[in-house]
């Protein structure tokens, strides 16, 4: 009972500080570019290997491409969408994997900008609190809690551009022991009271968002045609909220490919992106019949060795999301307009 009360108090506090009207603790200012466009990277399922050399050819190639593009495009930050350390997370804040799988791989000068991190199922196989604690010593690793929000502001800090909501889909839906080869349905949250409190937190965040764009980010997909497919828990609970509050997109990893899906509900159009191709590639489309008809707009698992990542570009008129491969080539791009 005490634990439930404590979680509820934490959620109430988080709601009271959600999306402040002034610059918040984890907020970030857009970098000035000549074309008035701000850019950031999105990378998922990037977490190397638990044995030497502690990375994969895909991760190294993706990091190299991000580093080079980051210089050319003057990127502002990165979103890291979970499965940060394969296969069983980290054990302590001093775990060597922080160096061998992250710091030494994503070492380019252009990537020494903030990394906004969330946890995946493989991270929950270890000690997620150690990943959170690492943010207290790292200059770029931002992971203040299992659930948190932040905003991207114009350079003068007078107007928000994007609100971001970072969620832990394992706490919401279960799956902390899920392996990449385990495709059975999730068993549900390990603590239903904690999960329910965070569902309330998510709805509060969505309700309070006022930015022209609202991106919700998690690890498990809402919709996916690939090896794990849709996540029923998120289809049932999160999807209606995304449409109700006119979110711009839901972005995730988990399935090891690049996907763009869309779906309409009550007259509201929604974008779903899967960006999980930074470490392993899986071409499976075994759940193609489990998503709405004509939902899939793009799918890529084109290289069995070298992966891909996302690039978001935002200005006063639109937000675009592109999929980029290890050779810095644009595979696909879609454009989204400000929320009504």
Automatic annotation (TrEMBL):
* Record keywords, A-Z: Disulfide bond, Hydrolase, Iron, Metal-binding, Signal
Q: Provide the binding site for Fe cation 2.
A: 83, 121, 219, 254
- Where is carbohydrate linked to this protein? 127
Q: Which cofactor names does the annotation list?
A: Fe cation
Cleavable signal peptide: 1-18
Look up the coiled coil feature and give its residue ranges. Answer: none
The record lists Fe cation 1 as bound by: 45, 83, 86, 256
Q: Which InterPro entries match?
A: Acid_PPase (IPR024927), Calcineurin-like_PHP (IPR004843), Metallo-depent_PP-like (IPR029052), Metallophosphoesterase_PAP (IPR051558)
The free-text note explaining how the cofactor binds reads: Binds 2 iron ions per subunit.
Q: List the disulfide bonds.
A: 173-233
**Ranges where the Calcineurin-like phosphoesterase domain occurs:** 39-257
What is the name of the protein in this document? Tartrate-resistant acid phosphatase type 5
Residues crossing the lipid bilayer are: none
SUPFAM superfamilies for the chain = Metallo-dependent phosphatases
Q: Name the EC number(s).
A: 3.1.3.2
Q: Name one GO molecular function term.
A: metal ion binding
Q: Name one GO biological process term.
A: bone resorption
Q: Which reaction does it catalyse?
A: a phosphate monoester + H2O = an alcohol + phosphate
Q: Which organism does this sequence originate in?
A: Adineta steineri
């Amino acid at each position: 009972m005490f634990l439930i009360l404590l979680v509820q108090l934490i959620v109430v506090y988080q709601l009271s500080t959600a999306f402040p009207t002034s610059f918040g603790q984890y907020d970030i200012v857009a970098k000035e570019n000549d074309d008035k466009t701000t850019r950031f990277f999105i990378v998922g399922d990037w977490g190397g290997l638990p044995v030497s050399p502690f990375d994969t050819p895909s991760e190294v190639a993706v990091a190299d491409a991000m580093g080079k593009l980051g210089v050319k495009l003057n990127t502002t930050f990165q979103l890291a969408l979970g499965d940060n350390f394969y296969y069983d997370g980290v054990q302590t804040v001093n775990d060597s994997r922080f160096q061998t799988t992250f710091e030494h791989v994503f070492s380019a000068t252009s990537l020494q900008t903030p990394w906004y991190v969330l946890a995946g199922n493989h991270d929950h196989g270890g000690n997620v609190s150690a990943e959170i604690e690492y943010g207290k010593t790292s200059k770029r690793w931002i992971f203040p809690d299992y659930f948190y929000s932040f905003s991207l502001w114009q350079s003068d800090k007078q107007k928000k551009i994007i609100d971001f909501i970072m969620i832990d889909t394992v706490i919401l839906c279960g799956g902390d022991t899920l392996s990449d080869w385990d495709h059975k349905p999730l068993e549900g949250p390990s603590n239903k009271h904690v999960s329910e409190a965070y569902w309330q937190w998510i709805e509060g965040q969505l309700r309070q968002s006022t930015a022209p764009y609202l991106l919700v980010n998690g690890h498990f997909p809402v919709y996916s045609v690939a090896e794990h497919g849709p996540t029923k828990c998120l289809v049932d609970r999160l999807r209606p909220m995304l449409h109700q509050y006119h979110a711009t997109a839901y972005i995730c990893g988990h399935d090891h490919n690049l996907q763009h899906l869309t779906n309409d509900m009550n007259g509201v159009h929604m974008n779903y992106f899967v960006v999980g191709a930074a470490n392993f590639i899986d071409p499976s489309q075994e759940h193609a019949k489990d998503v709405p008809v004509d939902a899939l707009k793009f799918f890529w698992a084109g290289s069995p060795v070298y992966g891909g990542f996302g690039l978001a570009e935002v200005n006063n008129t639109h937000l675009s999301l592109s999929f980029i491969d290890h050779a810095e080539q644009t595979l696909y791009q879609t454009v989204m307009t400000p929320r009504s």
